[in-house]
């Protein structure tokens, strides 16, 4: 029957405890039984020292070293040294006149090096320890070995950061020393704190953010690598049991972890799983891979788990997903803004009226964005007024997007209303529009040209910081005089704008444009005007729309090979007198 997967930590712990108990019961049936040891004679009382043979065995009439005449008891000790897999030596204390041990003499040693740059002990027989290991004094080794002789207590895992200056430079190794008294001498072994394989293992765990652990299901012993201790922020020697591990799993991930543990306890090898744990208040995501250790009876007696910490990658994925969502939202907002702005522009910048053609004027207008989906504050107006004059205006509200479109709409509608006041001229309209922009705290500066073409075909116009119109006449293009030019809209309240009058002739083509047409980064605006003027000269003899088409071809990136691409939005109005 398919096992029920635990959904909460308490149930999962009960499942683990039940499975482990069943495994122990099954293992106990076939396990060998060791009888309890028989009582032994009492050892020496506190304060007493048992007499021992120098070879390390307890003294007594039954000991072989004591039974043979002329036997050298130290031969037993020295003969065992080559069998020890770590560096080992028998040391004889060197005492001063007060009986204090200040050094040792190497009596015997084996041929095992604890580091490549250190000599084997058997190369220093008969020499002083501080002579062959000069760094031992700084590490407190001499004092520790002397205490072994004094107290009779063995020394275990005494760590020494052994540093030595040699001909090829400084060397350091962390060595662990074990020692025991052997009569009046000391048997000492030392080994590196970590061998090369252990160091490579630690490096791999650090680089890959991983670790591993073994849970002995029969004895209950748990062994963790340093990498796993680092992941769970536990001290070395304080490994979590399977039950404690269940308590650390997030509630939503208990079924996934429970399915994995259940499979392992049944002797299967489940697929890897991502499980989240709460570690000191932080959520850590681990990829777990498990392996059961199967006995000959087919039952698992231990579990291996390898864990890789994916927390950093998960956080990166979450940040990336958030960035993508934010980018998508911004894209949708921008698309919606472009849609609204484009609709506004199409509503606010209609094509010229057919009624202008009845007055002998052909008009063409165009809006060229610097980017295909950009919208700005450029605008124009060309229409017949009730008094018979033709209003011709162009402007540029600062900025891009809906804000600029809104300002453009405000200025254009204001001009449309002001232009219907009877008897007004271009200077008055420009002055009134300037006051309107200056009085709006939310408004920004803008430029513009406002003018009228009357029945006698005179163009009377005012300028608020805007580029001068170009007049194409008899195959030559020139700028209109701008000596009467005033400040930008919104810059100087109360300013009275002046006007200038230009008589127009049949065949003339008047071009009004915004500054995006002539401004280039790193280039004087005069150069941009000259480039536009040359292109306009090539339009001699063309109608208003044909001339506009040629201008657009010259300044549209995909249609020209010259360095005349636009860097800002621009608006153009061409009026030809037929």
UniProtKB/TrEMBL annotation:
Record bears the keyword Protein biosynthesis: no
Positions of the UniProt region annotated as Disordered: 27-49
SMART domains: PP2C_SIG
Taxonomic superkingdom: Bacteria
Key word Hydrolase present: yes
Organism expressing this protein natively: Streptomyces vinaceus
Keywords: Hydrolase
Protein name, UniProt field: Serine/threonine-protein phosphatase
Ranges of residues in domain PPM-type phosphatase: 362-577
Alphabetical list of InterPro entries matching this protein: Bact_Sigma-Reg, PPM-type-like_dom_sf, PPM-type_phosphatase-like_dom
Gene Ontology molecular functions: phosphatase activity
Pfam families, alphabetized: SpoIIE
PROSITE patterns for the chain: PPM_2
């Amino acid at each position: 029957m398919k096992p029920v997967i635990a959904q909460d930590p308490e149930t999962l712990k009960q499942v683990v405890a039940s499975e482990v108990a069943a495994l122990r019961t099954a293992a106990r049936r076939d396990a060998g039984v060791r009888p309890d040891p028989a009582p032994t004679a009492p050892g020496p009382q506190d304060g007493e020292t048992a007499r021992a043979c120098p070879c390390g065995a307890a003294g007594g009439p039954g000991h072989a070293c004591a039974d043979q005449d002329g036997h050298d008891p130290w031969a037993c000790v020295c003969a065992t040294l080559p069998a020890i897999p770590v560096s080992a030596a028998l040391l004889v204390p060197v005492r001063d006149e007060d009986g204090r041990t200040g050094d040792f003499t190497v009596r015997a040693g084996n041929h095992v090096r604890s580091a490549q740059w250190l000599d084997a002990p058997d190369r220093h027989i008969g020499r002083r320890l501080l002579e062959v290991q000069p760094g031992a004094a700084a590490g407190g080794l001499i004092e520790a070995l002397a205490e072994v002789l004094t107290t009779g207590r063995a020394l275990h895992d005494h760590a020494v950061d052994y540093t030595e200056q040699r001909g090829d430079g400084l060397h350091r190794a962390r060595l662990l020393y074990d020692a025991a008294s052997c009569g009046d001498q000391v048997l000492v072994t030392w080994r590196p704190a970590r061998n090369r394989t252990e160091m490579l293992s630690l490096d791999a765990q650090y680089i890959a953010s991983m670790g591993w652990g073994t849970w002995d299901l029969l004895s209950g012993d748990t062994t963790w690598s340093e990498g796993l201790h680092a992941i769970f922020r536990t001290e070395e020697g304080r490994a979590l049991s399977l039950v404690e591990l269940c308590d650390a799993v997030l509630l939503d991930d208990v079924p996934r972890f429970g399915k994995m543990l259940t499979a392992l306890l049944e002797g299967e090898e489940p697929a890897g799983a991502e499980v989240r744990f709460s570690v000191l208040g932080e959520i850590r995501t681990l990829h777990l891979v498990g392996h059961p250790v199967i006995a000959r009876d087919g039952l698992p007696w231990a579990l291996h788990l390898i864990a890789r910490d994916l927390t950093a990658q998960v956080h990166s994925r979450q940040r990336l997903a958030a960035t993508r969502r934010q980018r998508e939202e911004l894209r949708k907002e921008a698309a919606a803004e472009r849609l609204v702005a484009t609709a506004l522009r199409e509503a606010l910048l209609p094509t010229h009226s057919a009624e202008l053609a009845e007055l002998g004027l052909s008009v063409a207008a165009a809006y060229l964005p610097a980017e295909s989906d950009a919208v700005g504050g450029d605008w124009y107006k060309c229409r017949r007024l009730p008094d018979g004059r033709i209003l011709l205006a162009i402007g540029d509200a600062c900025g891009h997007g809906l804000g600029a479109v809104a300002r453009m709409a405000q200025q254009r509608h204001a001009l449309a209303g002001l232009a219907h006041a009877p008897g007004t001229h271009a200077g008055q309209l420009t002055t009134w529009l300037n006051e309107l922009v200056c009085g709006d705290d939310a408004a920004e500066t803008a430029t513009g040209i406002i003018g009228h073409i009357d029945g006698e075909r005179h163009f009377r116009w005012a300028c608020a910081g805007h580029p001068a119109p170009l007049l194409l006449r008899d195959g030559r293009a020139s700028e209109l005089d701008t000596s009467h030019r005033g400040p930008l809209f919104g810059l100087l309240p109360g300013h009275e704008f002046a006007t200038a009058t230009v008589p127009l002739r049949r065949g003339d083509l008047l071009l009004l444009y915004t500054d995006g047409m002539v401004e280039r980064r790193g280039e004087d605006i005069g150069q941009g005007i000259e480039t536009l003027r040359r292109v306009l000269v090539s339009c001699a003899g063309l109608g208003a729309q044909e001339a506009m088409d040629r201008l657009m071809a010259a300044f549209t990136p995909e249609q020209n090979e010259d360095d005349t691409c636009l860097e800002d939005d621009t608006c153009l109005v061409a009026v030809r007198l037929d």
